[in-house]
């Protein structure tokens, strides 16, 4: 099986210690394939099933590149639903326990705008949210994506199925051209395959059938 310990990656001792305390010792196959690519700064299209550990794959990449002293949004993770966004934010907070004062916020539909605008005004390092609501914030000028260095599309196939394609493209065009884009999906949808050049730059493509292959 294509796997290795997290300690084979160029991560700080504090980060490795936190992963250890979470019970993460060996990388899952998707992590073992994706993390060297992500840590090298490449764009990525990764196909893997649910439960394969995709959140830590992009989460470790985001947190390794994060500058907690800079209070601007450095990473944006787009998810299909509020429930998934909450789960991703929770996992990112666990992965970030070794870093002081990392602010991770969620911006999803179905919750009032006021508190979201308030937390954006306070400053956030990482935003996790649904495409519709983030597009809404962009339209109102309440979110600034110009300092993004990593854009993650989580469950991209589901987001496209749910009709979020245009929102995703609008959000991507509000992010700097010079950024890292990471796309995770159970399948590789045609819509994204056709227009991947608009979203990703020379992406490395990886595919993992299942955790136990
Ligand atoms: P996916 O997004 O691929 O569906 P998740 O990122 O939600 O999967 O991870 C599934 C589960 O595996 C979570 O409970 C997570 O804590 C756990 N997990 C992730 N990576 C590891 C690892 N390297 N070692 C042990 N457990 C892990
Ligand atoms: Mg996931």
From TrEMBL:
It comes from the Bacteria. A motif (Q motif) lies at residues 4-32. The gene is dbpA. Residues 4-32 form the DEAD-box RNA helicase Q domain. The chain holds residues 1 to 213 of 461 of the full protein. Residues 35-206 form the Helicase ATP-binding domain. Belongs to the DEAD box helicase family. This is ATP-dependent RNA helicase DbpA.
């Amino acid at each position: 099986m294509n796997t290795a310990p997290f300690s084979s990656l160029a991560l700080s001792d504090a980060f490795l210690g936190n992963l250890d305390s979470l019970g993460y010792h060996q990388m899952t196959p998707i992590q073992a394939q994706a993390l060297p690519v992500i840590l090298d700064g490449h764009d990525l299209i990764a196909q893997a099933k649910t439960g394969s550990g995709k959140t830590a794959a992009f989460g470790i990449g985001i947190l390794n590149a994060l500058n907690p002293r800079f209070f601007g949004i450095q990473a944006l993770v787009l998810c299909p639903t509020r429930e998934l966004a909450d789960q991703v934010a929770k996992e990112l907070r666990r992965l970030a326990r070794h870093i002081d004062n990392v602010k991770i916020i969620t911006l999803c539909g179905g919750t009032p705008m006021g508190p979201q605008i308030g937390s954006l005004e306070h400053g956030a390092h990482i935003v996790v949210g649904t495409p519709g609501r983030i597009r809404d914030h962009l339209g109102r000028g309440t979110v600034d994506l110009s300092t993004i260095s990593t854009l993650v599309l989580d469950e991209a196939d589901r987001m496209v199925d749910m009709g979020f394609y245009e929102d995703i493209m609008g959000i991507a065009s509000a992010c700097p051209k010079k950024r890292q884009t990471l796309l995770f999906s159970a399948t590789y949808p045609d819509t994204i395959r056709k227009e991947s050049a608009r979203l990703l730059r020379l992406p490395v493509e990886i595919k993992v059938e299942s955790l136990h292959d």
